[in-house]
Amino acid sequence: MGCLPSHGRVNCTRCFGDGARVEFDRTRRTSDDGKWRITANPLAWGNEEPEIVVLGFSKGPTQAGALATSPHDQIAYKGSRTAVGKILTHVGVLDSPADGNLSRSIDRLIADPRGRFHFGSLVRCTVERYDDQKKAWSGSGGGMLDKFVATPFGQEVAGNCTTAFLGTLPDSTKLVIMFGLGTKMNYVREARRLVSAARPGAWRTVNEVAYSDGRVTFVHVEHFASQGALIPNWLGENSHDRSKLGIMARDAVRIALEV
User: Fold this and answer.
1) Are 159 and 94 contacting, i.e. CB atoms less than 8 angstroms apart?
2) CA–CA gap between residue 191 and residue 209 (Å, rounded)
3) What is the rounded distance in angstroms from the CA atom of residue 183 to the CA atom of residue 190?
4) Cβ partners under 8 Å of residue 47, min gap 6
5) Tens digit of pLDDT at every position of the chain (259 positions)
6) What would the DSSP string read from start to end of 188-208?
7) Rounded distance, CA 249 to CA 114, Å?
8) Cα 245–77–137 angle (5° rounding)?
9) What is the Cα–Cα distance from 37 to 130, expressed in whole angstroms?
10) Cα distance between residue 29 and residue 226, in whole Å
11) Cβ neighbours around 64 below 10 Å, total
12) Helix, strand or coil for residue 213?
């Protein structure tokens, strides 16, 4: 048994204080400097005892904006499921569908509480930062992942999530796929630090995008919402050095699932 939450809303108030009254998708907590905030709306999809865990960083504005109007199974990776399918196919955990509809394949995997996969995010609550120029809160933008986890507030929040939901994974789990590489691989380094703190053990580097404690391997892939040529470059559709990161991810996944 492990500590992955079951399909649906997640009962967690850890970042809001013991005994705090927390309302789903309404209660917020803001960092002391006023630059970051989280909204209490943790969610999970898929199997709580999977072979493979797939994690974004946090619900982006499209996903968070759908909470009040969309069924649970339509929220995860909303608007980006084809990109998710391309990335998972590239690393070898999803077969190309006969009808070519990757989005529909992801629909089925996300909705299946007894399948091979669990879906969620490293930070289960929604993370936003304050845009001084726009005078508004935003859940997306360059450097979002690594900048958040580099702050004291981000360290606390991400540390709580990592300890709660990744500290003790099910015996069946061999692989955790994490969307996001970060600026100059900063997110890979910060995520590894969080994971190794939550799961003490003999951690080793598999390659630039993967690390393992000998039982579970964490592999970072291109973020499904990356803009411009980043995803095609990572997929090897263009002649670009970034394709090496996609190959490294595929190699690490193969090794993890063979063990």
Assistant:
1) no
2) 11
3) 11
4) 7, 112, 113, 114, 115, 116, 117, 118
5) 568 999 999 999 999 987 778 999 999 999 999 999 999 999 999 999 999 999 999 887 667 777 878 899 999 999 999 999 999 999 999 999 999 999 999 999 999 999 999 999 999 999 999 999 889 998 877 677 788 988 999 999 999 999 999 999 999 999 999 999 988 999 999 999 999 999 999 999 999 999 999 999 999 999 999 999 999 999 999 999 999 999 999 999 999 999 6
6) HHHHHHHHHHHS-S--EEEET
7) 26
8) 100
9) 8
10) 27
11) 20
12) coil
Distance CA 88, CA 224 (A): 10
pTM of the predicted structure, to 2 decimals = 0.94
- Cα-based angle 39, 224, 173 (whole degrees, multiple of 5): 80
- Six-digit token string for 213: 């404690």
Closest C-alpha to 45, from 13, 84, 87:
84
| Neighbour-count burial of 51, counting CB atoms closer than 10 A to its CB (0-12 exposed, 13-18 middle, 19+ buried) | middle
Burial class (CB in 10 A: 0-12, 13-18, 19+), 62: middle
DSSP letters, 70-113, are S-GGGTTTTT-HHHHHHHHHHTTSSPPPTT--HHHHHHHHHH-T
Q: Retrieve residue 122's tokens.
A: 């490293």
- Contact (Cβ atoms closer than 8 angstroms) between residue 108 and residue 19: no
Q: Give residue 220's identity as a one-letter amino acid code.
A: H
Residue 221's H or E segment, with its range, is: strand 217-221
Residues 68 and 161: their CA atoms lie apart, in Å, by: 23
Torsion of CA 33, 36, 41, 42, to 10 degrees: -100
